[in-house]
Every structure is written in C-alpha cells, then in structure tokens.
C-alpha cells in the first residue's frame, strides 16, 4: 500500500508532481479552499505518515499535533525555518531538506541581482521603453564592480558559490558567519565590521529566530550611501522598515531583494524606488533545480518508508 502524505504548498515541476502521485497517496492541501482546510486535515490526519513541505509553507506545532501518525517531514528546499523543530524533536520525527542541488541556481540569481542593481538594469530598461533615450533625458553613469568589496553574510554552500562567481568580476570577497570557514577569504569579526568593509552585502545565511533582523539599521548605515544590500536568503534576516527608511533617506545606496518579510506582498514603499531591484522569491526557480529538489525530497520519503538511511537529513533538533 502506498504511504499517505500531506502535501503542503504547490507549483511542483511536472515530473515531481507525477512521481509524488505515483509513489504516494497524496493529500494536496493547496487544492482545498482555505476555509475548508482544517476540516480536510481532520479527515485525512489518521492516515498521514509523511509531510511534503516547501521552504516557505512548513509545519508548525499545531499541524504537527493534528497528525498523530506523522513519521517524517521532507522539505522541498534547503531553508528549514518554516519547520517547528521543537514540536517534532520530542516525537523523534526526522526532517530532510534539499541542499546542494539548488546552490548554483540560487547563486546565479544573487549575482544577477547584484549586477542588476550595480548597473541599474531595470531602470535602464524602463528608460528605453518609456522613451527616455529618444528624449535624451539625462542619465547618470553606474559604477564598476572591479575592485569593489562583496561581503558575504553566511559563507555556506550558496555563499561560497556567490563568492566564486563574484571573484570572476574582479571583486574582493570578505565574509562573516559564526564559525571560521574553510576558505582563504578574510573573515570580518562581526556583521557590522563586514558591512563597514563592504560595497555590497550579500545575505546568504539561514532565516529563523536566530537570525531575525540581523541586518538592522546599524548594519545598513554601516553599508552606507554608496553601499548595496542583496538578499537571496530570507526576508526575516533584514529589518525591512529600517531598510525602507535608509533607502528613502539616501543613507543606503541600493537594494536587490528576492525575499521579503511578508511574502508575497513586500513593502509598497520599495516598489516605488528606482534604486531597488525586486524578484518574487525565485532563487531556486529553474526547471532543473526545482526538479532536482522535488526528486531529492521524494527520495528522502521513499528511503524512510523503505527503512533505509535518509539521503539528506537535517542535523539539528531545535530551530
Ligand atoms: P548553508 O550551507 O547551511 O550555509 C549557511 C551559512 O550561514 C553557514 O555557513 C553558517 O555558518 C551561516 N550562518 C548561520 N547562522 C548564522 C548567523 N547567526 N550569523 C551569521 N552566519 C550564520 O546553507 P545554504 O545551502 O548556503 O543556504 C542558505 C540559505 O539560503 C537557506 O537557509 C535558505 O533560507 C536560503 N535560500 C534561499 C533561496 C531562494 O529562493 N531565494 C533558495 C535556497 C536557499 P555558521 O553556522 O558558522 O554561522
């Protein structure tokens, strides 16, 4: 008999959807109207042995408590900040994620955002479309990347991949994280030091309570009027109100953001700003990465139900 799983989130790549439905009896919560979801969960809960979650639609203590037979949570994503580990750990429920298979594509987007902000690509696109070029409206030059400093907050898998790419543009790399990385790049002792030393601050650390608003007003001010903030990690890492205030006052030069505190809305003020580049949380949103992520999440579920070692378990018990 196929194991029953509760599928949270939606938008899986075609091969992933097909395999999910082939290998499991799936209860797709996203297909149920929001007002009917509680009744639906109550109805299917007795049979549910696994949860297939996304990086942003995770499992909280309430949902975990509603699933008495829950054995495993497989996250389709590397960030596990939407999972309440404290609710799962006492029941010995393992959590898996999908590291590595998305690293290159997320790093590519980080670099695309950094370049777009540095060379003001969205603004220049509007300039051509809106007739600014024909009308010879004044245009300021942008700034070169060569010789500038990129500070990486979180030199993990994605941070390393971003650093390698930016070196190719002639940038100098620094980083900050809690541990010393196995890397030749200089480590700044604090995030504040990193921001002071950097022209571009690229946020690549995990979200969750431990990193909430790490990039605060002080850090943003240290980055300064010529500085640019790039965030491809999680919106929760950045104090967005402070970011908006600093950009509006010219205390920060520019920002390029893939993630926001309140998705999918994002602050209205940012949408009005010329010096801001915005993308809708699409770091891993390529056919290749999303397919590989889905397959890896499925492989973790299959390994669990076959009594085999998990492919990519998350090695921690608290969030
Ligand atoms: P990773 O390999 O675990 O790297 C995370 C790095 O952050 C580690 O080197 C870690 O070093 C550092 N870090 C953790 N806590 C920190 C803190 N409090 N202060 C400073 N640094 C800290 O993870 P990854 O695979 O690179 O992924 C990073 C994040 O990217 C994910 O958690 C996810 O939220 C985000 N992401 C976003 C997208 C998107 O679509 N935009 C896609 C994929 C991933 P220490 O432990 O030594 O501090």
Characterize the structure shown:
The protein is α/β, with parallel strands linked by helices. The chain folds into 2 domains: 4-99 and 287-305, 3-Layer(aba) Sandwich (Rossmann fold); 103-278, Rossmann fold (3-Layer(aba) Sandwich), CATH 3.40.50.720. It contains 12 helices and 11 strands. The protein has helices spanning 14-23, 37-44, 61-66, 85-88, 103-118, 121-129, 157-167, 191-197, 217-223, 240-248, 268-271, 287-305; strands spanning 4-7, 25-28, 48-54, 72-76, 95-96, 149-153, 172-176, 200-203, 228-231, 254-257, 276-278. It has a 6-stranded parallel beta sheet, sandwiched between helices. A 5-stranded parallel beta sheet has the order 2-1-3-4-5, covered by helices on one side. Helix 8 packs parallel to helix 9. The protein is globular. The two termini are 34 Å apart. 40% of the residues are buried. The mean pLDDT is 97. The structure holds NADP nicotinamide-adenine-dinucleotide phosphate.
Write the layout of secondary structure elements.
Blueprint: E1 4-7, H1 14-23, E2 25-28, H2 37-44, E3 48-54, H3 61-66, E4 72-76, H4 85-88, E5 95-96, H5 103-118, H6 121-129, E6 149-153, H7 157-167, E7 172-176, H8 191-197, E8 200-203, H9 217-223, E9 228-231, H10 240-248, E10 254-257, H11 268-271, E11 276-278, H12 287-305
Parallel strand pairs: 1-2, 1-3, 3-4, 4-5, 6-7, 6-8, 8-9, 9-10, 10-11
Residues 78-79, 99, 102, 106, 153-159, 177-179, 204-207, 210-211, 232-234, 258-259, 281, 283-284 line the site of NADP nicotinamide-adenine-dinucleotide phosphate (NAP).
